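G., the chain you wanted modeled:
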Amino acid sequence: MKLGVNLGYWGAGNDADNLEVAREADRLGYAVAWAAEAYGSDAATVLSWIAAQTTTIDVGAAIFQIPGRTPANCAMTAATLDTLSGGRFRLGLGVSGPQVSEGWHGVRFDKPLARTREYVDIVRMALRRERVSYDGEFWQLPLPDGPGKSLTLTVHPVRDSLPIYLAAIGPKNLELCGEIADGWLAIFFSPEDAAGLMEPIVAGRAKVDKTMEGFDVVPTVPVVPGKDVEACAELVRPYAALYVGGMGSRDKNFYNQLMSRMGYEQAAIDVQDKYMNKDYAGAAAAVPFEFLDKTSLLGPPERIGERLHAYAEAGVTTLSISSFAGTIDERVGTLRMMSQVLEASGLAD
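Predicted structure as tokens:
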């Protein structure tokens, strides 16, 4: 198992700290640093900034929003980042959600699976430097009734094939991920519930005569070291409440649905009710400790080390940590602790 670090969003006054975290992860031999985007900082600019100031660590989009870029523009950006970084770019993709897709990008949130399939088809075609011609439901390239012509990407990526990851939560999207992607970006991943999540991925791989060999399973896991496990969990509560309660509408929140499928249906309802009534503290308090403990790494290093074995046995190949420790010194300390714990556990790849 390898380690990654998820830096999240930028532009909230934490840019210098995030850069230092990325540099320290690079020095420690972490495999990849991921950056996210929603409707603030974009991931591409952040990743180019990180790549310019690191040497060996991969830089990954977690994720580029499918409604925010045409497939051709995505391929251009991916090829450019791969070239600038010397072959260190990983392309993570996701459809986002209806609120952001329709409210921010003005793109209808319809048929997300079919849209994702077409998008990845075109991106791969462009990155292979083929002449792009595509006749799909969502994209027709070139348009059939105008002066456009089929074009070839002029940038030469460093590698013949860039790794593509999908952010997936629902069973059908997980199956699609296994079928068309090289890796899975997971959130609220619980080793105890992993079998049900991995089953559709395995099925998707089987569709194209592939096994899980070489497929990268990458959950982002909050990490809070400390003596008191429940006190550590308190730092993760607002994050969990934001996603379960506020990332989506009442009837279309994928994180809320995931929590329900994991056996916390009433808690998911309570968290969402409180969050939508702007009772943010109440929403955070309503997240069950057990859910936080199952989807985070909390407590003393020895406890975290024991827990790493469960992640490895569940099929995790790259564990991407998200540090909730607070100060920059504490965040860097968490990176170092995780590196040492992984090495001591005998799981380091």
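The two ends are 5 Å apart (CA to CA).

Shout if anything looks off.
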